[in-house]
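JOB MANIFEST
job_type = single_chain_structure
chain_count = 1
residues = 247
[input]
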Amino acid sequence: MNTDSPSADRRVIVALDFDDRRAAEELVERLGHACGSYKIGLELVTAAGPGLARDLVERGHEVFLDLKLFEIPNSVAGAVRAAGALGASMVTVHSMGGTGIMAAAVEAAREFPRLRVLALTVVTSMTAGDLADIGIEAEAEEQVLRLARLAVGAGCDGVIASPREAGPLRRLLGPDRLIVTPGVTLGPDGSAGGTVGGTGGGWAGGHARAGTPQAAFAAGASHVVVGRSIARAADPVAALRRARAAC
C-alpha cells in the first residue's frame, strides 16, 4: 500500500491548530500527499473563515470541522448543514447540550451522506476537579460513558473522547461507532508507542487525559487527532508516518 497517498489511511487526522490560514497552508504543503485528513477547529475558522475547509475538500482531503456546536437545536441544525455544504466529513456537537441538540444535528446531516456527526463527551483538558466545578460529581470516564449512551440514543455516528476512554467506549459502543481521540501525541522522543496513561511531562500539550497513537488504536479508537507532534516536528512527514505506523 502506498502510505503517501491521501486515500491510504485517513485514520490519523492532522490538526490545523493555527491562528491564520497561511500557517495552516504551509503545513498542508509540507505534508503534501502524505496526509489525507485534517481537523479545522474554532480558532482557524474564526481567524480565516470557511474557505480553507472548502479548498481542502476540493483537493481530495477529508475535513473534520471541530465546531463543538452547543446552541439551540435550530442553530445547530443550520451550522451542520453549512458544514455539509462545505464538504466536511465530520462535525462535532456537544453531547452536554442534550438529546434535542444532538438529534437536530443528526437530522440536518441526513442531507449530506458523507457527513458524520460526532458527539463531544468530555474535553481532554478536563479532570474530575473541573467536572466538580460545574456540579458533576463523577470521574471523567463515568461522565464520558454516560454522555456516549445519550449520543447513541440521539443517532450520532460516534463520539469524541480522550485516548484513556477509548477502551471502555469500544466495549460500550460495539465495533461500528466512530471513536475519535484528540489529545494524542507522539511522546517526548517522537515515538508513537507507549501506554495510554504515559503522558510524560509537558509534551501532552494541555491535554490532561492524553495518550499515544498506538495506545489509542489498541484500546479501540477508530481515528486519532494529532496536532503539535506533527505540526512542530522538524520533519512533519516523518512524524505523520510514525503516527500511521500505530494503526
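[summary]
The chain is about 40% helix and 15% strand.
The CA atoms of residues 33 and 78 lie 32 Å apart.
exit_status = 0
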